[in-house]
Task: inverse folding
């Protein structure tokens, strides 16, 4: 089956509540389930390969919440619950990096039993982060208040890799990137106008994963 490839471009402008965010989403999916995942479940995990790097847990939770709010028939296993259930096989040094590693994992009887009990059909790995970029402006504060103006940016880049745990195969990728500019004017009281960069990236990647997993789309 040929892959489905889509690219989405959109800008979220929140002139009063937040800065402007520009985002792109690229999707490449093979063999999406035509009738959803039924009574099976999906687990969404953040990549953590080093002590100083991890995909933010709140981003992982955000994507899971987006999917469940879009289709409450989909069972999304909580990341921490899953990691505790299969400890230590999904710790940073032992977690599988490629679908072929699933076969090795299932040779461990406790892992195979737990996966069967949890009815894991799809495993989605999230890799990436949101970083602050640059900054300019100045602000001074005294007993009379604060005066000035500051601005800074954020870049969010994430990739979701979808594994079919039953077929032990990779079945899709979703990439999202978002950039935004935040502002803080101050006339007596500083007023932060924050660009929801990470939230926009979550919505973008969550929407594509929801369409992959749900029978409603």
Result:
């Amino acid at each position: 089956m040929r892959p489905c490839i889509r690219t989405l471009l959109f800008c979220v402008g929140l002139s009063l509540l937040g800065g402007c965010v520009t985002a792109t989403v690229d999707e490449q999916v093979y063999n999406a389930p035509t009738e959803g995942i039924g009574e099976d479940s999906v687990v969404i995990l953040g990549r953590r390969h080093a002590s100083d790097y991890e995909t933010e847990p709140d981003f992982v939770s955000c994507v899971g919440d987006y999917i469940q709010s879009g289709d409450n028939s989909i069972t999304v296993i909580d990341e921490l619950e899953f990691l505790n259930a299969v400890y230590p096989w999904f710790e940073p040094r032992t977690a599988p990096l490629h679908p072929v590693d699933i076969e090795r994992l299932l040779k461990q009887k406790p892992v195979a039993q737990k996966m069967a009990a949890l009815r894991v059909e799809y495993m989605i790995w999230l890799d990436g982060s949101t970083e602050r970029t640059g900054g300019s402006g100045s602000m001074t504060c005294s007993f009379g208040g604060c005066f000035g103006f500051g601005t800074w940016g954020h870049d969010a880049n994430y990739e979701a890799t979808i594994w079919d745990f039953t077929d032990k195969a990779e079945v899709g990728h979703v990439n999202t990137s978002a950039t935004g500019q935040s502002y803080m004017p101050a006339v007596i009281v500083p007023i932060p106008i924050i660009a929801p960069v990470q939230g926009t990236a979550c919505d973008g990647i969550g929407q594509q994963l929801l369409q992959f997993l749900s029978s409603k789309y």
Q: What stands out?
A: The radius of gyration is 20 Å. The beta strands are 4-12, 21-29, 41-46, 75-77, 120-142, 145-164, 169-190. The helical segments are 57-70, 79-85, 101-106, 109-118, 197-213. The CA atoms of residues 68 and 74 lie 6 Å apart.
